[in-house]
Batch of 2 targets.
Target 1
Amino acid sequence: MPTALIVLAAGQGSRMQSDLPKVLHQVAHAPLLVHALIAGQSLSPDRTVIVAGHGGDAVEAAARDHDPEATVVRQTEQLGTGHAVQQAQAALDGFAGDAIVLYGDTPFIRAETLQAMLDARAAGADVVVLGFEAADPGRYGRLVADGDRLERIVEAKDATPDELSIRLCNSGVLAADAATLFALLDQVGNDNASGEYYLTDVIGLARAARLSARVVTCPEAETMGVNTRMDLAAAEATFQTRKRTEAMENGATLTAPETVFFAHDTYLGRDVIVEPNVVFGPGVTVESGATLRAFSHLEGCHVSEGCVIGPYARLRPGAELDRGAKIGNFVEVKNAQVHEGAKINHLTYVGDAEVGARANIGAGTVTCNYDGYFKHRTEIGEDAFIGSSTMLVAPVRVGAGAMTGSGSVITMDVADGALALGRAQQVTREGFATRLRAKLKAAKEKR
Ligand code: UD1
Ligand code: CA
C-alpha cells in the first residue's frame, strides 16, 4: 500500500518564547522537524508533505535540506489541525493510499509504533489513532474508546468532567486512507471551545459513517511533544539516554554514559571506548577499536580504527584520521587528512593540511593557514618530523622524511629528507648571567 506522510509544522510555538519557529529548535543538533521526518521516513513513504506556516521559509529550507524530495505547503492562517491537514490535499492530488499524519514537534515516535498503525490499517481499521496512557492527561485530547475500538476524540477544552477523567490520550498521530481522510475533513466544522477545525473530529464523523476506528498505543515517552524550553531540555535528555543505550548495545564502552553527549547521527563502531565528558557535534563516524579520551569534542570528522583521540582534543569538520593516528591533548584538527600512524600529541593546530603517514608533529606546532582573506594548505610528507613550536606558514610543503628545527618559522618548501631551520642563531656569553645578577642585586640593595 503506498503511503504519504503529512507532517504538521505550521504552529508558532508561542510558549517557546522564541523568534525561531518551534519545529526548528534542535535536539542533538537536528531540528525537531527532522527528527519527526526521520521517524516517518522509517515507513519509506512514497510522498512527504510538510505543512509550514510560522517561519515558513526557514521551515521549508530545513525540510528541503533534509529531504529534497519533500513537498512543503503553506498554511497561512493556523485554523486548527484539521485545517492544516487539508492544506496537504492539493499536493496529494492523484495519490491513492494511506496518509499518516505526524506533528513536527513530536520527535520520538518509533518506527515500530508507526508500523503497528499501518498493520492495524491492513487488518481492516478505516482510521487508526496513536494513543497513550498519560500520567497527567492535562490538555491532551481524550480518546473515548471501548478497548481498542475508538468512538470519538474529545478535546480537553470541550470535555465533560467524566470525559476529562479518561487517561487514554491522543498523541496526534493518525493513519487513514487519504481519500477517506480528506472526505471526512470536508465535514469538520469549527463550532467548539477553540473555534478551530479539529483533526480529531474525523473519528466521530468516521463512526457516524459506519467506518471503523482503532487505537494503537505506545509509551508516553514516545509521544512527548515540545512546547516549552523545559520540554526541549527534557527531549534532549530523552534522546541522549536512548542514544547512549544504543551505543552500548552496539558494542561501544561508555565509561560514564551520562556525561557523553551525542548528535542525532553519531556513528560508533564496535569496541570504541568513550571516556567521560566527550561531546559529539553532527557528522561524526568513529570506527572500531578507536579510543576517545576524556573531554574531547568531535564534529564532522572521521576517526578510523585504532586511533586515540584526546584527552582534551578538538576535531573539527573535515578532520579525516586514518588508522592508528594519535591526536593528543589541546590539539585542534580541522579540514585535514592525518594519515596512518601519524602523531600530533600536544598543543597544536593543524588546519587545511595533509599529514603524511607516521609523521610526528612536535608540541606547539601551528599551521598558519589564514591570511585574513584566504585559507592556504600545508602538506607534510610521510615520516616527516616537525620540531616543537614550528610555525608552518601556508602554503607550504615539508617533504617526506624531512625535519624542521624547534621554533622554526617555515615559509618556504622543504625538500624530501632535508632539515629546515628558520630561527635566529643562538648566541651564548660565558659568565654573563652571573655578572648581570650581581649587578642587579647591588643596585637593589642601594635603594
Ligand atoms: C493536539 C490534538 C490533541 C492531542 C495533542 C497532542 C487536535 C484538535 N488536538 O492538541 O487531541 O492530544 O495535539 O499533542 O488535533 N498545527 C498546525 N496548524 C494549525 C494547528 C496546529 O500546523 O492550524 C500543528 C502545530 O504546529 C503542532 C501540531 O499541529 O505541531 C499540534 O497542534 P497544537 O496546537 O499543539 O495541538 P494541541 O492543542 O496540543
Ligand atoms: Ca501541542
Target 2
Amino acid sequence: MRPPATSVARDRLRIAIQKSGRLSEPARALLASCGLSWRESRDKLFCYGESLPVDLLLVRDDDIPGLLADGVCDFGVVGRNVLGEYNAERGDRGLDPVSREMRGLGFGGCRLDIAVPEAWEWEGPAQLQGRRIATSYPALTQQWLRAEGVEATVVMLSGSVEIAPRLGQADVVCDLVSSGATLTANQLRPVTTLMQSEAVLAGPVATFADPRAELAQLLLRRLDGVLRLRDSRLLLFQAPRDAVPALIKLLPDAEPPTILQVDGADTLALQALCHGAMTWQRLEDLKSAGARGLLVLPVERTLS
Ligand code: PRT
Ligand code: ZN
C-alpha cells in the first residue's frame, strides 16, 4: 500500500490555491506579500518557490480539502464553505477532520443562505418540513436541518442552484450569496444564514515532524503580520495639549501613540499606528475633537 504523503519527510511546503476564480488572485497577492515568489511551470499547475522553499499547486477550489487530506499539499487557501462541507461530509461518515481552518484571510466573503421564493411569508425553519432544498452544500445543509429538527429533502446540484425552484427541481435553495443580485434576479429572497464564509488558510490537524514545521511557523508568523496590518494605517496629526485625552479615546484600536511637543507647551504632534479602518467619518470626528493636519499613511511592514 502507498504510504500517505504526510509520512514522507519533506523539506518544502506545498500550498494549494485556486487556479482561476474568485480566490486565485487575492490568494497569490497575499502569499506574495508574505515574501514568497515563484517560478511557474510551463503547464501553470505548479509554481516552484524561489525566495523560500514554499511551492504552489494551482487547482480547482473543491479539490483543495481532498489534497490536504491525502497529504499532497500542506496548506490550502479555500472558502470556509468548501472546507466546512468537506469536513461535515467526513463527519457524516464517522471520520475525524484531517484539516482545519488556521486563519481567516479577509477576502472572498460571502454567506451560505437559505433563500425562498419572494412570494413566501417566512415563518422560520419549521416551514421547510417536507420541502425540497437545492444546494451544492448537502452536508452543511443536512447538518443545519438536523440542528433545527427539520426533515427535508436535500437535492444536490453542482451549479445553477438558483434556478432550481423555477425549474420545479426544488422549493427553496441553500446557496452562496454575496451581493444578493443573483437571488433577486431569480425571484428568491434570503431568509437565514447557515455560515458566514471567507477565504481561509486550511492546514493539517497534526503538526509536521520534519523541516516543514519550521517553514510553517515562519509562514504563519509572516501571514499574521500581513493580516494584522491589512487595515492598519499610521495616523499623524497635531492637537492642543488639552484635547489629547479625548482624541486618544477616539482611537481605541491604536497602539500607544508617540507624542512630541512642537509649539511651546500648547501644541502636541501625535503619531499612532491604528489597526481599524480609517474612514472619513473617523477623521471628521478627530477633527471635531481638535485634531489638525491629519495625515493617514499606509503601513507596509512591522517587526517587533
Ligand atoms: O473552478 P473552481 O471550481 O476552482 O471555481 P468555482 O467556480 O467553484 O469557484 P468560484 O471562483 O466561483 O468561488 C470560489 C469561492 O469564492 C467560493 O467557494 C466562496 O468561498 C467564494 N465566494 C465569494 C463565492 C461568492 N462570493 C459568490 N458570490 N462563490 C460563489 N459565488 C456565487 C454564488 O454561488 C452565486 O451563484 O455567486 C453567485 C451569487 O453572487 P451574488 O453577488 O449575486 O449574490
Ligand atoms: Zn469549485
